[in-house]
């Protein structure tokens, strides 16, 4: 947390990562002891641990141990102070304070052999370090032993009862199947120095410990904000957020308005082991961040700390943690109502349903589900800070009782700063910070729900409904179009299949030669496990190439020049002839440069003049019908052919052939001009 424990963790990490303590010089055992004690009293725990180790190392070289200076100091319960025991116990405590539980466990284990009267809390802290190091069975034995011999009511007894409840909760978590989520630390060399990620527009901003070199060459390790557009691993390609600042100032834990142009963040300093933190504001104007301004009362109150701001999506509230008066414990969660200019109007405590007697920190509200997520060390959990959630509303008076998010989101170490990256599902995808994989420091972890959808379907031609083979499919995030979820290819029968993880809203885009590109959007529900989705057929429109189309048309027209036949001595259209003319009209209307000649024919009965007149009537009735269907008269020419050109014999073996005569009573077309 930014408070007593996590500020110490954040600032001491600089020494653990980079070895910043160099104030040692050769001296004897007593010199090391007194120097270590002074550092310990000043709460410089990392430096104290280094010197205590020096003292114990020199002590081993000079055994049997001589303690001539032991009588110089007497402590209640410690008749004759043994500097070895005092060094071991304070060394264990120093390591615990800087969250190096592995080494703390080693020295607390030795401490429980000392006088219980002199070190009454040793067994309790030994149990705590065992739990932090996931030695749960041993931790239960030690905490039960401590509670059997310590019955005097006090803070340590209350804490021991809580520790026992924590171990019971851990046991329950270990008995259930924890396969709903995958929590993974981001791979990078300095990942342990990055934490408290938040979203800004389509990118991420998080806090990072960085080396700063002063003009005089002196190096410091400061917390600052960095920004990354890498969705999969924000630790890659991250750049410093250019906020105006000055020497000795730490910046971190930011939150942004929905458009990314307004920022609240935490700015803190540390002097004489005293940390002071306030919430600051800055705006993105003229392609730069304005000089940060300390937020006025009631966001900040002199004499108290305010930190970890988190703005709601609608910009109406700013959540934050503070140790100001009026709270339930150490650090409480508070909500500030904001006006349209993001000025705090009123601040109120979220109440004792949310806040505990410990520290409650890192608030975040998931807008769609109206769920408050935060971390606390004042509730039954898995140890350290655990992530909790509760449903409710700022417009109502109450929140539901917070629930522990459980494993694997929580561990025996500190788990904090959870934010979701899924607008609909709180736990589907997100980020959190934890020191579960580190001796000292918070690191970034991705959170992904263990869900997947096996999507399959077929690609077809929109017109013919025949399958389209080998179409290329690109699947993207529907709400973030630049995020490609996968690229696939349909097989030779037009079928496709792919597996998609943690995505309820996606787009399938298709490409195929000779087809128009197309896309389809999908909005599904997230369910744990793997679902199979059988998509409806996806159709693609074939591209119409004019030249090829005309070639195909001409070939077709040349093959089917016959329009229809007529009854004996008649010029009336029958149903079949009308259907043929309807088809011809569609073609002529689509290709207005196409000009045709309609020719009319008769059978051989009657004179030439009579048959030419009858043939012309058949031509005229056909042209009139085409014009009634919208065909331009300029596309139509007509010619009476009479009985000139029979296509079937009208007599067979000297006998009349009515079928042949019927075939000869006809109209046909020829192409005169085409595109």
Residue share in helix = 25-40%
**Gyration radius, to the nearest Å?**
42 Å
Please outline the major beta sheet: 5 strands, antiparallel
- Strand percent estimate: 25-35%
E-strand count: 35
Distance between the termini: 77 Å
Q: Structural class of the secondary structure composition?
A: alpha+beta
Characterize the overall form. elongated
Average pLDDT number: 87
Total of helices: 12
**Could you name the ranges where pLDDT drops below 50 across 5 or more consecutive residues?**
1-5, 11-25, 64-75
Question: What tags apply to this protein structure?
Answer:
35 strands, 675 residues, 32% strand, elongated, single chain, 12 helices, disordered N terminus, alpha+beta, four-stranded antiparallel sheet
Q: If you had to describe this structure to a student in words, what would you say it looks like?
A:
- This protein is α+β, with helices and mostly antiparallel strands.
- 26% of the residues lie in helices and 32% in strands.
- The strands form 9 sheets. Strands 6, 7, 8, 9 and 10 form a 5-stranded antiparallel sheet that branches. Strands 1-21-20-19 form a 4-stranded antiparallel sheet, with no helix packed on it. Strands 2-3-4-5 form a 4-stranded antiparallel sheet.
- Helix 2 (29-41) crosses helix 4 (83-97) and helix 6 (122-132) packs antiparallel against helix 7.
- The longest helix is centred in the first third of the chain and has 21 residues, at 155-175.
């Amino acid at each position: 947390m930014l408070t007593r424990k996590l500020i110490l963790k954040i600032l001491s990490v600089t020494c653990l990562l980079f070895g910043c303590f160099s104030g040692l010089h050769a001296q004897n055992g007593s010199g090391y002891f007194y120097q270590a004690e002074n550092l310990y009293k000043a709460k410089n725990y990392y430096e104290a641990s280094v010197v205590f180790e020096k003292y114990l190392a020199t002590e081993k070289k000079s055994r049997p141990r001589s303690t001539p200076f032991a009588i110089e100091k007497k402590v209640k319960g410690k008749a004759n102070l043994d500097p070895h025991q005092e060094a071991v116990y304070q060394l264990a405590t120093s390591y615990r304070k800087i969250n190096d539980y592995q080494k703390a466990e080693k020295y607390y284990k030795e401490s429980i052999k000392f006088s219980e009267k002199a070190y009454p809390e040793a067994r309790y802290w030994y149990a705590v370090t065992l739990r932090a190091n996931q030695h749960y069975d041993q931790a239960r034995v030690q905490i039960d032993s401590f509670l059997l011999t310590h019955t005097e009511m006090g803070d340590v007894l209350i804490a021991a009862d809580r520790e026992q409840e924590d171990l019971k909760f851990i046991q329950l978590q270990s008995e259930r199947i924890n396969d709903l989520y995958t929590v993974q630390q981001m791979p990078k060399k300095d990942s342990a120095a990055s934490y408290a990620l938040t979203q800004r527009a389509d990118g991420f901003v998080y806090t990072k410990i960085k080396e700063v070199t002063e003009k005089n060459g002196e190096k410091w390790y400061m917390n600052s904000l960095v920004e990354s557009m890498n969705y999969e691993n924000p630790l890659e390609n991250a750049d410093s957020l250019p906020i105006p600042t000055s020497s000795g100032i730490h910046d971190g834990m930011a939150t942004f308005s929905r458009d990314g142009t307004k920022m609240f963040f935490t700015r803190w300093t540390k002097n004489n082991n005293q940390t002071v933190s306030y919430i600051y504001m800055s705006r993105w104007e003229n392609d730069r961040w304005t000089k940060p301004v300390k937020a006025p009362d009631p966001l900040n109150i002199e004499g108290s700390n305010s930190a970890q701001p988190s703005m709601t999506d609608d910009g109406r509230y700013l959540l934050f943690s503070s140790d100001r008066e009026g709270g339930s414990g150490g650090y409480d969660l508070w909500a500030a109502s904001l006006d349209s200019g993001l000025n705090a109007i009123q601040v109120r405590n979220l109440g004792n349903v949310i806040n505990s007697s410990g520290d409650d920190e890192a608030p975040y509200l998931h807008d769609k589900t109206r769920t408050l997520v935060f971390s606390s060390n004042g509730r039954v959990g898995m140890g350290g800070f655990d992530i909790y959630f509760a449903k409710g509303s700022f417009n109502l008076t109450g929140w539901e009782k917070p629930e522990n998010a459980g494993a694997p989101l929580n561990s025996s170490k500190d788990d904090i700063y959870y934010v979701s990256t899924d607008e609909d599902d709180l736990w589907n995808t997100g980020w959190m910070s934890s020191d579960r994989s580190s001796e000292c420091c918070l690191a970034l972890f991705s959170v992904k729900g263990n869900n997947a959808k096996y999507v399959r379907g077929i690609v077809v031609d929109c017109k013919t409904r025949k399958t389209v083979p080998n179409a290329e499919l690109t699947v993207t995030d529907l709400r973030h179009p630049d995020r490609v979820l996968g690229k696939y290819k349909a097989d030779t029968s037009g079928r496709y299949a792919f597996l998609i993880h943690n995505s309820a809203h996606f787009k399938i885009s298709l490409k195929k030669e000779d087809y128009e590109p197309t896309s389809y959007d999908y909005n599904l529900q997230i369910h744990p496990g793997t679902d199979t989705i059988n998509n409806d057929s996806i159709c693609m429109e074939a591209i119409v190439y004019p030249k090829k189309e005309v070639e195909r048309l001409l070939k077709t027209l040349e093959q089917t020049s016959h329009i229809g036949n007529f009854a004996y001595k008649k010029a009336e259209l029958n149903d079949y002839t009308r259907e043929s003319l309807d088809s011809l009209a569609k073609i002529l209307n689509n290709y207005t440069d196409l000009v045709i000649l309609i020719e009319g024919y008769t059978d051989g009965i009657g004179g030439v003049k009579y048959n030419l007149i009858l043939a012309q009537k058949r031509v005229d009735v056909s042209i009139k019908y085409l014009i009634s269907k919208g065909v331009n008269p300029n596309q139509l020419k007509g010619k009476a052919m009479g009985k000139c050109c029979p296509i079937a014999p009208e007599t067979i073996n000297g006998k009349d052939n009515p079928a042949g005569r019927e075939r000869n009573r006809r109209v046909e077309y020829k192409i005169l001009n085409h595109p």
